[in-house]
């Protein structure tokens, strides 16, 4: 594959350059390539902006710790009930009004409470994701790579943590110290197990591959093999799992608060808001919709960012494998495969619509080797 | 291999011991189980405190109390040692009794949801992987992400509002508005157009026909008041059966294998005969009769495939078995539907057939069909909620796994030696794509047993989750430990299975004896 690729690359001028052809990535560092691919993923880019907007909105409106925010009501204040607590948010023309998300039964401002809940959820998510990913990768990687006694001890330890229910840890934390910080740390310390098992599984399989033998023959140390050779190949699994972990962390935190074991009053959380207001669904539906909507939006954006990262990192599931094979009738090896030439559309535009499905069934692995040589 | 398993089981025992000690201490130190009594103004306060202290051994420090509990718990796990004793709950009910009613409830809820989520999730994942970056793929990706982002308690409240309260009102007067018909048909048309894909012309035709068919069917159902007295009838069963026959033949043998197609079609015919032959039997139906008939149907499928013979009779058998299974399911469904109006008009139901809470209607006494429908109407909402939540991860993982396999050399080799795309996908790619999934599925099943805590509490299922939550809230270790024992043992066993399965399926990963 390497030789073929170099031949195509060295052909001077001529053929139109398609986006993200191997030539495009030539001379770029791994980080640059990943960034480039990531910003080509619409869903992920939109998600980053939405998530940032939620983050900025929740922090600036409510304030952070002692710093006050710009919103006139705090999440614990109980202003007088206006207009039965109906939401005053207007989109055309846009105006927030007095209580954009409405008020609850005693008059507390839903906008302030929802944003405070979002703030807590985001904080818990980040802490849990960071702790769990770090611990999980370290334990999984060392278990999968070293095998033997190390693996036995680490994985038995993992098994032990797996079967300790997160609910119990949270219940203890809720009793011991009221506050999201300890809750987040404890949740992180019990939710790394899935990551460790997945990383270990990946390492078990990867360490039997030829490139690891090659690296070892070349005299690479264990840590170099782990971090430079195997880990980059496992990065897809890790990023996908970290994002799954982070969105799961939000759901766990809100679920805990929903059953009364997470964030405790007077502080509030998105889950607690739903739990407090679910009985009022028929009379005050807005109390129920807004916190739920925020949970879904935060989770959804995280998942899309994870998907974008996966596409950017993982050379094995990349978008352009198939299209490149199809769109390049000039590939030297394509001429050897009549089916490919027959199916190849004349221009890049048509590939996007009609011919895509039929061509997906054609051998599509031509591009994979190419990418490997460029990494 | 045996040495490995023995060692793992011994290690698992140690793991369980360690984890149970940690859990016991966490619960014991989370709060005071006497707090509720202490804050009350009851005149018999002292006596109640003394009684509870006695029952829960509260005068012993937690670390030692754990060993009292362990002494009783060992008798449950090791046979013939003595009476199983897991302590009592705060309400003085033995935990063993509480568990014996809670476990079946939870299993009922979780099994259906797990099986359906795994089947549907993996199928969707494989299909989207085969059509990577199509409209279908993008759509499914978005929808699975959305499902994955839904908090289950939020979904549950929504399902209760729209799936039960509003739907029951609709069932009371099952007339579908024209605008609703139009909307549903529009969605179905789009869905089919995306699913079948092809050129724009073909998509247009698909859209129009799916739209027309859906609108027609819905209008028919509305006019004939089908929802009041639903049934399938022999015609629908046979037509769907033929569709299943073709589908399973395509999947297992390819349409060019006429013997497989004919054996599947024979099974559809036999199903039609059975539909009439079994009618007198249904009045005295029991669960075992239904299971027996189901097994009989599958065996019949195998036999028919065997007798059709040919070079590859196993393919015919498989196709016939799947068809037979599907058709018997339809016949059974039809019978349940025929009993629906009887169920819906039962005074215990009070015109609200889809239930929002509980696992069964209290006081309902009926035959196999009525209790069956009752179970179903109680299970349907929590099951939907559980499926929606767990669908996403199966879809994503199976898609990723399939994509990776489709890029492997052996898939190219398969194509290069002239195998049909069907054989490449089902034989070479699909089976290998399932290997990494085996680990995830095994672990998930272990986790699901105790993982329905939130769902159970929202839908008021008196299962293990509620027992567990109450224990945690009351700071009472005994019920928590009882649930933990069950979930912990399942989790450990399934973890072992996951490891063994991985090394059995993928010879590159070796189990060290």
UniProtKB/TrEMBL annotation, chain A:
Its main location: membrane. The chain crosses the membrane at residues 38-64, 120-146, 153-174, 180-199, 230-251, 287-309. Gene3D superfamilies: MetI-like (1.10.3720.10). Residues 1-26, 323-375 are annotated as: Disordered. Residues 122-306 form the ABC transmembrane type-1 domain. Keywords: Cell inner membrane, Cell membrane, Membrane, Transmembrane, Transmembrane helix, Transport. Pfam families: BPD_transp_1 (PF00528). InterPro entries: BP-dependent_transpt_permease (IPR050366), MetI-like (IPR000515), MetI-like_sf (IPR035906). Residues 324-333 have a biased composition (Basic and acidic residues). This is ABC transporter permease. The lineage of its organism: Bacteria, Bacillati, Actinomycetota, Actinomycetes, Micrococcales. It is found in: Cell inner membrane; Cell membrane. The keyword Ribonucleoprotein does not apply. CDD domains: TM_PBP2. Residues 343-361 have a biased composition (Polar residues). It comes from the Bacteria. Belongs to the binding-protein-dependent transport system permease family. It is a multi-pass membrane protein.
Automatic annotation (TrEMBL), chain B:
CDD domains: TM_PBP2 (cd06261). It holds the Pfam family BPD_transp_1. The chain crosses the membrane at residues 9-29, 109-130, 142-159, 179-198, 205-227, 233-253, 260-279, 285-307, 319-337, 376-394, 437-461, 481-502. It is found in: Cell membrane. It is a multi-pass membrane protein. Keywords: Cell membrane, Membrane, Transmembrane, Transmembrane helix, Transport. Residues 103-502 form the ABC transmembrane type-1 domain. The keyword Cell cycle does not apply. This is ABC transporter permease. It comes from Cellulomonas edaphi.
């Amino acid at each position: 594959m390497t030789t073929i690729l170099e031949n195509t690359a060295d052909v001077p001028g001529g053929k139109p350059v398609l986006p993200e052809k191997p030539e495009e990535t030539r001379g770029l560092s791994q980080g640059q390539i990943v960034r480039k691919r990531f910003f080509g993923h619409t869903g992920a880019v939109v998600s980053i902006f939405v998530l940032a907007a939620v983050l900025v909105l929740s922090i600036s409106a409510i304030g952070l710790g002692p710093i006050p925010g710009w919103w006139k009501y705090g999440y614990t204040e109980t202003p007088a009930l206006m207009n039965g607590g109906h939401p005053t948010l207007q989109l055309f023309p846009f105006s927030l009004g007095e209580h954009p998300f409405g008020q609850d039964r005693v008059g507390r401002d839903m906008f302030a409470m929802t944003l405070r809940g979002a703030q807590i959820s985001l904080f818990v998510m980040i802490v849990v994701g960071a702790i769990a990913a770090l611990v999980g990768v370290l334990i999984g990687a060392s278990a999968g790579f070293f095998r033997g006694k190390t693996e036995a001890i680490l994985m038995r330890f993992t098994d032990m943590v797996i079967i300790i229910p997160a609910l119990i840890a949270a219940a203890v934390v809720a009793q011991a110290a009221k506050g999201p910080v300890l809750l987040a740390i404890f949740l992180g310390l019990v939710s790394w197990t899935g990551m460790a098992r997945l990383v270990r599984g990946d390492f078990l399989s990867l360490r039997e591959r030829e490139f690891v033998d090659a690296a070892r023959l070349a005299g690479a140390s264990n840590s170099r093999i782990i971090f430079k050779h195997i880990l980059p190949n496992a990065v897809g699994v890790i990023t996908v799992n970290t994002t799954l972990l982070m969105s799961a962390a939000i759901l766990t935190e809100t679920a805990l608060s929903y059953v009364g074991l997470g964030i405790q009053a007077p502080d509030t959380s998105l889950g607690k808001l739903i739990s407090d207001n679910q009985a009022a669904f028929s009379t005050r539906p807005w109390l129920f919709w807004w916190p739920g909507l925020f949970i879904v939006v935060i989770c959804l954006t995280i998942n899309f960012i994870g998907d974008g990262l996966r596409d950017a990192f993982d050379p094995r599931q990349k978008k352009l494998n198939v299209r490149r094979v199809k769109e390049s009738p000039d590939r030297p090896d394509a001429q050897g495969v009549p089916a490919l030439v027959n199916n190849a559309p004349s221009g890049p535009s048509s590939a996007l619509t009609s011919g895509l499905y039929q061509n997906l069934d054609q051998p599509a692995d031509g591009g994979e080797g190419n990418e490997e040589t460029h990494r | 291999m045996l040495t490995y398993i023995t060692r793992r089981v011994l290690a698992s025992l140690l793991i369980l011991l360690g984890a149970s000690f940690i859990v016991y201490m966490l619960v014991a130190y989370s709060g005071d189980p006497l707090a509720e009594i202490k804050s009350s103004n009851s005149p018999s306060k002292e006596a109640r405190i003394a009684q509870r202290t006695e029952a829960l051994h509260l005068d012993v420090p937690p670390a030692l109390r754990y060993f009292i509990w362990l002494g009783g718990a060992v008798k449950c796990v090791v046979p013939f040692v003595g009476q199983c004793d897991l302590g009592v709950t705060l309400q003085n009910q033995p935990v063993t009794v509480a568990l014996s009613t809670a476990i079946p409830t939870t299993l009922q809820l979780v099994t259906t949801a797990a099986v359906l989520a795994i089947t549907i999730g993996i199928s969707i994942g494989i299909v989207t992987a085969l059509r990577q970056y199509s409209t279908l793929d993008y759509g499914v990706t978005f929808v699975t992400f959305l499902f994955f982002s839904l908090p289950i308690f939020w979904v549950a409240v929504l399902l209760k509002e729209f799936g039960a309260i509003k739907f029951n009102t609709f069932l009371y007067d099952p007339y579908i508005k024209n605008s609703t018909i139009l909307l549903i048909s529009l969605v179905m048309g789009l869905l089919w157009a995306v699913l079948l894909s092809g050129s724009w012309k073909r998509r247009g035709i698909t859209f129009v026909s799916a739209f027309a068919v859906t609108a027609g069917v819905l209008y028919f159902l509305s006019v004939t008041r089908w929802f009041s007295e639903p049934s399938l009838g022999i015609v629908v069963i046979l037509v769907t059966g033929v569709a299943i026959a073709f589908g399973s033949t395509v999947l297992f043998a390819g349409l060019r294998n006429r013997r497989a197609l004919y054996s599947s079609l024979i099974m559809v015919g036999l199903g039609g005969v059975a539909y009439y032959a079994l009618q007198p039997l249904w009045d005295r139906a029991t669960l075992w009769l239904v299971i027996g008939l189901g097994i009989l149907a599958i065996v019949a499928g195998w036999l028919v495939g065997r007798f059709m013979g040919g070079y590859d009779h196993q393919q015919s058998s498989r196709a016939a078995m799947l068809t037979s299974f599907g058709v018997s399911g339809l016949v059974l469904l039809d019978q349940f539907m025929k009993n629906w109006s009887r169920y819906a008009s039962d005074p215990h139901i009070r015109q609200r057939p889809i239930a929002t809470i509980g696992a069964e209607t209290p006081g309902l006494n009926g035959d196999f069909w009525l209790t069956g429908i009752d179970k179903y109407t109680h299970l349907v909402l929590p099951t939907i909620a559980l499926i929606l939540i767990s669908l996403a991860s199966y879809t994503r993982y199976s898609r990723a796994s399939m994509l990776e396999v489709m890029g492997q050399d052996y898939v190219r080799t398969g194509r290069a030696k002239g195998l049909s795309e069907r054989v490449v996908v089902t034989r070479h790619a699909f089976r290998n794509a399932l290997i990494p999934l085996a680990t995830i599925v095994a672990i998930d099943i272990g986790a699901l047993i105790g993982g329905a805590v939130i769902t159970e509490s929202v839908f008021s299922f008196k299962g293990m989750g509620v027992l567990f939550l109450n224990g945690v809230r009351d700071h009472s270790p005994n019920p928590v430990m009882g649930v933990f024992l069950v979930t912990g043992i399942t989790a450990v066993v399934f973890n072992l299975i996951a490891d063994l399965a991985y090394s059995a399926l993928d010879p590159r990963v070796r189990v060290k004896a």
